[in-house]
Amino acid sequence: MLFSIFALVGSLIVGSSPGSLLEACCGLVLARLSVGWLLFAAVGIAGIFVLARLTRSLWRLRGAAQSVRGLKRVSEKVLVEGHTCRVFEDDRHLAFCAGLIQPAIYLSRAAVNDLPPATLRVAVVHEEQHRLNRDPLRKAITRTLAQSFFFFPALGPVGQKYLALAEIRADRAAAAAARAGQSDVADALLAFPAGESASSMSENSSDRIDDLSGNVHSWAPARSTVFTTLVALTALLSAPVIAVELITSVPVGFEALGLHVCLLILTLTPMVLAALAFLSRPSFQLR
Fold first, then answer.
1. Span 24-81, pLDDT tens digits
2. What is the 3-state secondary structure (H, E, C) of 96-151?
3. Whose CB among 21, 111, 125, 212 lies 3.0–4.6 Å from 93's, allowing a Cys bridge?
4. Angle between helices 117-132 and 155-177 (to 10 degrees)
5. At 71, which helix (H) or strand (E)?
6. 67 in Cβ contact with 87 (< 8 Å)
7. What single string gives the DSSP state of each residue in 23-62?
8. DSSP secondary structure letters along 254-272
9. pTM
10. Rounded Cα distance, 164 and 220, in Å
């Protein structure tokens, strides 16, 4: 609307449209516009969004790493239940494993002083399993992928279940290593505030409670989520190659099948999986 008003007023004043140069440029762009260029632009825009969200996720990880380094400076190394932990001053019951490259166990002073020895032992062994498995790095990668590749909706719920499985495995390892029963692990789970994001003992509580109760159940992402993800994967894999071949006028035909085996595999495999996902949903047990 602003451009039309500008062109109309300019034509009344100078006798010709002052936007003629812009109109010529627009006409040149429209003349060169094609399906290949549209596909190429769509892939480029998607790539820009991925890079932007990836940069934001990495920036947040950098901030979290700085917070961990600051906490490391104000904490002291203490041997708790046979494991080296870093104890910091806090009135809340907190226990977590942090650090991407060199993970360490962090405990609040209140947790060390207030919790019973059996509960504290389970919590420490639980976090020790996270440290040995480098779960902070795994969690960071999982969440970064889910946030960056937002057009793959299955990454979010699958990533959450992956994190829940990591917590369940740490619970089981803690129960075995600390020679604790299910009640001791449940006490350790309840000893930490459910609303504190800094306490990994409270993450994915519902799945962990089900596992402690012996209710091992199957889980599967929604059928529409799997189907949408596979369709998006098909488009992402095939669009760049098709766009380049349309722009350069290189035909994709069966006579050159040997040269396009990779393209066919990348394109057809997600399409076949999408068709199968539409008929049945894959599921797995949290074991």
1. 555 554 455 566 677 777 878 888 888 999 999 999 999 988 998 898 898 899 888 8
2. EEECCCCCEEEEEHHHHHHCCHHHHHHHHHHHHHHHHCCHHHHHHHHHHHHHHCCC
3. 111
4. 130
5. helix 35-74
6. no
7. HHHHHHHHHH--HHHHHHHHHHHHHHHHHHHHHHHHHHHH
8. GGGGGGGHHHHHHHHHHHH
9. 0.69
10. 14
